Amino acid sequence: MRAFTVLDGLVAPLDRANVDTDAIIPKQFLKSIKRTGFGPNLFDEWRYLDRGEPGQDCSKRPLNPDFVLNQPRYQGAQILLARRNFGCGSSREHAPWALEDYGFRAIIAPSFADIFYNNCFKNGLLPIVLSEEQVDQLFREVEATEGYQLHIDLPAQTVTTPGGTVFTFEIDAFRKHCLVNGLDEIGLTLQHADDIKAYEARRAQQAPWLFQNA
Amino acid sequence: MAAKTLYDKLWDAHVVRQNDDGSVLLYIDRHLVHEVTSPQAFEGLKLAGRKPWRVSANLAVADHNVPTTDRSKGIVDPVSRLQVDTLDENCREFGIVEFGMNDIRQGIVHVVGPEQGATLPGMTVVCGDSHTSTHGALGCLAFGIGTSEVEHVLATQTLVQKKAKTMLISVDGQVGPGITAKDIVLHIIGVIGTAGGTGYAIEFAGSAIRDLSVEGRMTVCNMAIEAGARCGMVAVDDKTIEYVKGRPFAPTGENWDKAVAWWKTLHSDPDAQFDAVVRIDAADIKPQVTWGTSPEMVLPVDAKIPNPFAEPDPVKQKSMIRALEYMGLQPGTPIQEIAIDKVFIGSCTNSRIEDLRAAAAVIKGRKKADSVKLAMVVPGSGLVKQQAEAEGLDKIFIEAGFEWREPGCSMCLAMNADRLEPGERCASTSNRNFEGRQGAGGRTHLVSPAMAAAAAIAGHFVDVRNF
User: Fold this and answer.
1) Which residues of chain A neighbour B83 with C-beta distances below 8 Å?
2) Which residue on chain A is closest to B421 by alpha carbon?
3) Residue B7 Cα to chain centre, angstroms
């Protein structure tokens, strides 16, 4: 996994609450058996005017000029600014894969859905929770200022605006450690293989039926 | 010893080790696998040269991509076919039990698990699917995971987890006639909101929940995720134990007695403390219909479409305006005047035998309205279909002009050929009314099976209590 430490990135604002994973990556693209290549179909139904199907050349499709990511000023954005309950709905990891493949490295919102939030960390994508007021302020600033960038410092747990305002954010210590170092969680867990085997031996005594049937 | 919630008991029984940062390594008893969220996990496993930790903990079934029409020709869409073939190959390679597309036991993974007794009380159950919360109805700790976690479970039989906060939702009293589990859970989501349960494990309790069948409880727990909670659960009682008894994967003999003794402890202690408590009066619940593009946008069938300009919260107001525009609805319109184009009875929320019985009871001897282009019934599994046919339910549906299909996820999320066309309006027994969920531009109204059946007959929403 790609490590995340410090990022200076262009911000794109997506001013909608409850953006669900069906909107982030519609179901027809979940048929892929790969982890990559979802970026061109990120927000497909909002981004294009035609119906998206797997295997299209997206560079030839008609863009919806009203959709925020299609505006020239937000091209190359690496930070997505969003509203409350971002990523609600299905557990599809294709959602963070699509955001990451598109070029986003961080998402700032007042709240995230649990499964999506968790999935982000497995893919080098940093979800940052700020207060409603702080997010409101960022929406006002980004919409007023072309080329608006934020400075994100994960080790320090801060977001700094161009005007010098510093917001701190909370993050779980283990997730931060994995993200800062780009660690493979499975490898870490397997260091505790003896503990897992000991648990199974203990549990098989108490609840043998769990280990006897397929 | 301090009083424990059901969630505490399930959690404590599965802690492998406590980590320094407060997280734990949590043991996973049952891993259910389907074709959409597993291929990249198997690929990751192979690339790292790893093997499944405990093969027998896994059970696989293809459900999202499978056709619901004639299966003798296989899957026509080559992309869907590749995904299902990939699951078959991965299961073969690693020796994982899989119910193939033409196996009578095939169906929606969340219907199949409990039906087979592969989901048992007291288990931790995970699946790369958010509706895994369904299995909590049996007194399980069951939650949806992403593909990276699917790989983690395959490789280690554990997950690194932090304990959630606990929420008790108690539905007290009795529901009125014609009110189903679906109405109860939609009402709950209307009260607490689509993010009301975020960060919580919800226990559903109270007399109205205890009165539900185990299948009804599955409908309620299924939609815990629509209230933002990764898991919902219901305490084990005699109904739970009766439900499990004799199922293919259930324990027998001495093990059965031992299991039952433990299962009977799987309830919250009387003085257990929850981080949040929500009390709902069952008598307040009417048949529910969603009107917008989030499950919290829900109203009783006798209500009118709300006016966004009466909403003080600017973020909510904006969502409402957009939802009404997408749904093609005007404020003030009575819900019962909304005409529908299609009806879908199915999904992991409402495709079990009791759901099909409830729908068939409403339509028996009636015909679907001519204005309804398609009404389809998609049983949750081959065994549900077989049972329904043994009871003659298929004939009731077919005579009323419904299509009787093969089991799968179907038009709940439209990954197969079943979908809405742009602008089409559907009365659906599924769980999500998001934009485009049932097909790009499609408009979904979530309802109970009985309400969907009544809408199919009338051509618009009606109050099933007076139908």
Assistant:
1) 31-33
2) A51
3) 20
The phi and psi torsions of A93 (rounded to 5 degrees) equal -75, -10
Q: What is the C-alpha to C-alpha distance for residues B343 and B446, in angstroms, rounded to an integer?
A: 10
Mutate one of A66, A189, A194, A211 to test the B interface: name it (highest B CB count within 10 A): A189
Query: What does DSSP say about strands A149-153 and A158-160: parallel, antiparallel, or unpaired?
Result: antiparallel
Whether A199 and B255 lie within 8 Å, measured CB to CB = no
Among A155, A149, A18, A139, CA closest to A88: A18
Here the tokens at position B450 are 């009985």
ipTM value for the complex: 0.95
In what order do the strands lie in the sheet containing B342-345?
B403-404, B374-377, B342-345, B425-428, B443-446
CA distance B147 to B39: 9
Tens of pLDDT, residue by residue over B126-158, are 999 999 999 999 999 999 999 999 999 999 999
Contact A173 B19 (CB under 8 A): no
Contact A207/B262, CB-based, under 8 Å? yes
Tell me how close the Cα of A162 comes to any Cα of chain B, in angstroms. 25
Residue B160 has pLDDT above 90, yes or no: yes
The mean pLDDT of A36-62, rounded to a whole number, is: 96
Q: Is the dihedral of CA B2, B6, B9, B14 positive or negative?
A: negative
Q: How far is A146 from chain B (nearest CA, A)?
A: 23
Instruction: Give the model's pLDDT for residue A1.
Output: 83
B121 φ, ψ (degrees, to nearest 5)? -55, 145
- DSSP symbols for B420-435: PPTT-EEEE-SS---T
User: Which residues of chain A make contact with B16, given a CB cutoff of 8 A?
Assistant: 192, 195-196, 199
Cβ neighbors of B284 (< 8 A, separation 6 or more) are B187
**What was the pLDDT predicted at A213?**
56
Nearest CA in chain A to B261: A207
User: Across residues B197-206, what is the average pLDDT?
Assistant: 98
Calculate the alpha carbon distances from B70 to A172, B104, B381, B405 in Å.
50, 14, 15, 9
Token pair recorded at residue B259 = 């299991």
Looking at the partner chain, which of B120, B144, B318 has a beta carbon nearest the beta carbon of A115? B144
pTM of the predicted protein model? 0.97
The sign of the dihedral angle between the CA atoms of B304, B172, B179, B437 is positive
Provide the pLDDT for residue A214: 47
* Cβ distance of B56 and A214 shorter than 8 Å: yes
